[in-house]
Amino acid sequence: MRREQHICNQFNGYLDGELSADAAVHFEQHLKTCAACGDGIRMWQKTACEMKADAMQWAQRTAAQVCMERQQLMASFEQHRALPFWYHPAWRVALVAMAASGVLFMAGHWFFSSMDKSAANVSRAKTVNVTHYRQDGSIRTSTQRPDAVLSAGTNESLQTDVDDDRVAVGPGAEIKLNDRVKRTPRVVLSHGWVACRVSKRKADDVFVTRTSDDRFSIEVKGTRFGVQYPKRDGSVAKSDAPHLLVAVTEGLVLVTGNSGGQWMVSAQNQLVVLPDGTAMVTSLSRMNRKIVTQLLSPSPFATADLGIKPQDAISAGSSTDGETAKKSASDKTIGALRPWLQRNARRSDTAETPSPKVDEIKRWIVSGQHVDAIAALEQRLKSEPQNGELWRLLAESRRKTGSYREAVDAYQHVIRLASAPVANAARYKTGLIYQNRLGRPLDAARHFSDYLASPEPQLLRAEALLHLGRARISLGDTSAARAHLTEVIREHAATAAAMEARKLLQNLPE
Amino acid sequence: MKLETQEKSDEALMADVANGDSVALGQLYVRHNNAVRAMIGYVIPGMARHDVDDVIQDVFLSLGKAAKNYRHQSRFNAFLFRIATNRARDWQRRAGVRWLFFCGAPEVETAAPAQHTQTTPSQHTELSQTVRQVMNSLSWSHREVLVLNVVAGFTCEEIAAILNIRPKTVRTRMHRARNAVLQHRLAPVWQAAISEKSP
Questions:
Q1: Phi and psi at residue A130, in whole multiples of 5°?
Q2: Which of A16, A39, A41, A47 to mutate to test the interface with B (most CBs of B within 10 A)?
Q3: Where in the sequence is the domain holding B50, given as residue range(s)?
Q4: Could you say which of A269, A442, A461, B161 has the lowest number of CB atoms within 10 Å?
Q5: B126 and B100, same structural domain?
Q6: Alpha carbon distance A450, A434 (integer Å)
Q7: Cα(B55)–Cα(B57) distance, rounded to whole angstroms?
Q8: Do A43 and B111 lie within an 8 Å CB cutoff?
Q9: Class for domain A350-507, per CATH?
C-alpha cells in the first residue's frame, strides 16, 4: 500500500519528464492498474490541450481583430482624405489669404476714415479758486468758471483764449498724450492762451501750444514739454527740457520749472503763484492746524511767462475754507488740481488806494514781504520814474524773489539814475545775476569790467576780478582769465578770492 | 531575399537585428507574436485587446534594443519570453497604479468560444471558460509557471531561467498549480465530461 502511494507521488515527475526510464516504465505499468492516476493523467492532458488550444486560438483571433481594426482605421483615414475640395491645403491657404486681405482692407479703411473724423475735444474746465492779494493786505476769494470751447476736427486749428483748458483726446483721435502716472489718454494744457493743432498719429508729431504773449511756444512730444523761444540775435532756441508744466495726477500736482526742477504738491496743499513769479506751497499742518508755507525756489514761473496782473495771485488746489474745500473735493476726483492762470482777472481797487511810503516799503523788504513791496514800488515808480532809490529797492526785491530778468531791468535803471557808488554796486550785482543766474557770461564780463573801470572805491574788487576771470573762462578766453586771476593773487593774496583764484589757475589749461 | 530570410533560424535573425536589420525583427514578430500573445493573455486575465497589442509591441521593441545582449547560450524562445514576462509584470504594476489613481475598472476582454476537435462545441465552450476561470483563480506565480509550461512548452529548468528563480521552486509551483487545477477545481467538470463520453 505504501509502495502504491509512493508511485502515485511520482505523478508530477512523470508529467515533467523527470523520471528515469525505468521509473517511467514502472509508472506507466502503474497507470494501468491505478484508476486515480490514470484519470489524473487523462484529465491533465485534456486540460493542457484545452488550455493550449484556447490560448493559441484566442491569440490568433485577437491578432486578427487588431489587424481588422487597423484596416478600418486606415479606411477611415482614406475616407477623411476624400474631403470636399475646400479642405485642400491650397484652398485653405487661399481662404486664409482672403481673410487676411479682408482684415487689412477693413483696418485700412478704418484708419484712413478715422483720419478725417477724429477730433480733439476741449472740455469745460472745472471751477477753480482764484485768490486776489490786495495791497491793503486783504484777501479776496472768488470762483470763476472759464468758457468752454467746442471740439475741432482733425488737422484743424483749435484755438481758445481760456486758461486751464483740458484737451481730451478721444479713442478715435489721431494723437494721444498720456498722463505721466496713470497713462490715461489725457492732456492738460495749463498755460495761457492756447492754439491746438491736431496732427497725424506719428511718433515725431508735435502738439503745439502758444502762450498768451506769443513769446514762447510749448512743444509737446509724447508727455514731454519743450520750450522754444526767440534769442537776441533773432534765431530760435529749442529745448526739449520741460519748461512749464503743471500736470495733475490723482491727488498730486507735479510742477516742472524752467530749471528742470520738479515739485510734487499733494491735493491737500495749496500752490500759490505770486505776481512776480514766486511760487509757494501752503499746507495745513495736522499737528497745530496752522498753515505752513514753503517757498519754491527757484521759482518755476516767470512773470513774463504768466502774463498776470501785479495785484493778482493765483492759487490752485484745496484751501482751508469750507466752500473751496468742497470744490476741491470735486476737482480731486477728476484730477483737476493745478495752478490756474487767470488772464482776465479782475482788477482790484488798489489803484485808487494811496501808495505806501518808502520807509514802510523798506520795512516790508526787511520783514520779507517782497510781494507787497514790489507791488508798492511799481505803483510809486509810475509817478516817480526817475527815482533811482526806488528802482534799487525794486531790483533788490525782485532779485530776492527770483525774478532775475526783471531785477536786471531794474538795475539798469539804477545804473542810469542813481549816484555813482550805488550805480557801481548795481553793475556788480547785475554782473553776478548774469554770471550765476542767467548764464550769460558775456554780459557778466561787461558789467564786471565796468565795475572795475569805475573811479569809485571798489570794495569788492577782488571778488569782481575773480568773477571776471570766471566769465572769461566761460567765454574761452583763457589768457585774459589768467591775467585777471593772477591779478587777484598778486593784489589780494590773503583773501578767500585769492585762494579760489589759485584753484582756478591750477585747473586752467595752458 | 525574403525566402532566404524566412529560412534563417531565430538566432541568425537576432544577429541581423543586432546589426540594425528591422526586416529581421519583423520576421521574428511574425513568427512569435501569437505565442507571446497567448502567454500574455493567459498570464494577465481580463486584459483588453489593445493593451495586449501594446504589450506585444513593447516586447518586440525591447527585443530589438536587447538584441546586442543576446549571447546564443539559451534558446531564443526563453530570451523572448523572459522579456515578455518582464513586460507583462510592468504592465500589471502600472495597471495597479492607474487603478489607484483613477479607480477605473480595467477593460475586461472575455474569451470567445473557440472550436475544438475532440469535444462538442457546447462542451468545448464550457470547458474553455472553466479552464480560464480556473486559471484566473490561481495566483500570479502559479499561473505564470503553468502557462509557460503548458502554453509555451518550456521545461522546469527553462522556466527557472526565464523567471530567474531556482528549478526546485518552479517544480513546487507547478505541483501546487496542477493539484489546484485537477483536484479542487476541474475535477467535477472532467468527471462530468468523462461520464458523458463513456457510454
A1: -120, 125
A2: A47
A3: 1-109
A4: A442
A5: no
A6: 14
A7: 5
A8: no
A9: mainly alpha
